[in-house]
Amino acid sequence: MGITKTAAIVGAGMAGLTVAAHLAKMGWGVTLFDKGRKPGGRMATRLQDGFIFNHGCQFASAHDAGFRAALIANQAKIWPATGNKFSGTPSMASLAASFASGLNVQLNTHVSFMAKQDAGWRLSLHDASTTPPGLVDPQGELSAAFDALILAIPAPQATALLAAINHPFAGELAKVHLAPCWALMLGFAGATPGPDIVKPPTGPLSWIARENTRPGAGPQPVSYTAHASAAWSAAHLERPADDIIATLSTAFAQATGISAPATLARAHRWRYALADAPLSQDHLWDPHQQLGLCGDWCLAGKLEAAYLSGRSLGIRLTT
Ligand SMILES: Cc1cc2nc3c(=O)[nH]c(=O)nc-3n(C[C@H](O)[C@H](O)[C@H](O)COP(=O)(O)OP(=O)(O)OC[C@H]3O[C@@H](n4cnc5c(N)ncnc54)[C@H](O)[C@@H]3O)c2cc1C
What we know:
By secondary structure, the chain is an alpha+beta fold. The chain has two domains: 6-44 and 91-176 and 278-318, FAD/NAD(P)-binding domain (3-Layer(bba) Sandwich), CATH 3.50.50.60; 177-275, Polyamine Oxidase, Chain A, domain 2 (Alpha-Beta Complex). It has eight helices and 20 strands. Strand 6 and strand 7 (85-87) form a beta hairpin. The site of flavin-adenine dinucleotide has 40 residues, from helix 1, strand 5, strand 9, strand 14 and strand 18.
């Protein structure tokens, strides 16, 4: 099949990867740009000193048959042990990598500006791996032109790009809110027996998971990821990471009964974690400008919502 149209997609999380796969299947020439070192966005995994942490999305609930089939096709397995929730095998990053395979993903590429010109959409690209970020194309601020542009990034980040070109979608996004989340990562070098999953009913933490219980995890030292509740994270958002580690480690010990000191302790702040006030619309599409927006925040703070939003935009553009 020859290329019919071209699209630039900013953001290679679940929403961007899903719309990209649909358009590519329908014969479009698709390029994804992501400022991260790997595809997946909040489907993230950190490897540190021999420990593995899935510090973002924990699992995917699958109510939609198409999403469930896509998860299974990308080697996701039921986790925790029973129910309708899936983990990547062995990590959420490997699930993202599987969804991204075969797609043209330009990583370490931060999109800082976009402009609609006669030839199509042009983007200003910066190499996110250098400090300060350098222009990807030193010859010209704006690189190749695309027929359509899709922003598959968290609403607040999309608002900034849209506001710079005075697009009315920036106003639509004002009603969307994403709550933050502090993630605590603890590694234990010795064998530290402890619970697989804990959902503390009180205190700062709302979720604790032992990483080496994931499907296909194989032998690895014991590591835990714990998430603070949205309310606690919002109240302590600007505190230094060391303070957060100290407070959340105490809560972790109380909730799990693990009193041994961790060999490794890290905290990660997700400024935009879970959409608690979504748009309640599958996606946004401006046919005149050939500009679309999708992401979990259109529907709910869930991986499945990101998939459904991306899929709906892909169908809209090809029917
Ligand atoms: C701590 C935490 C726990 C979670 N737990 C769960 C869970 O258990 N179950 C569940 O279903 N969901 C969970 N979620 C939510 C789930 O991760 C998200 O709903 C989903 O991953 C969102 O996908 P997305 O494609 O919409 O956005 P994202 O994954 O955020 O992808 C957006 C991408 O855009 C890139 N980007 C942003 N701006 C730019 C730019 N200017 N230029 C280039 N690239 C850019 C980012 O690098 C990112 O890769 C959790 C999220 C967090 C943070």
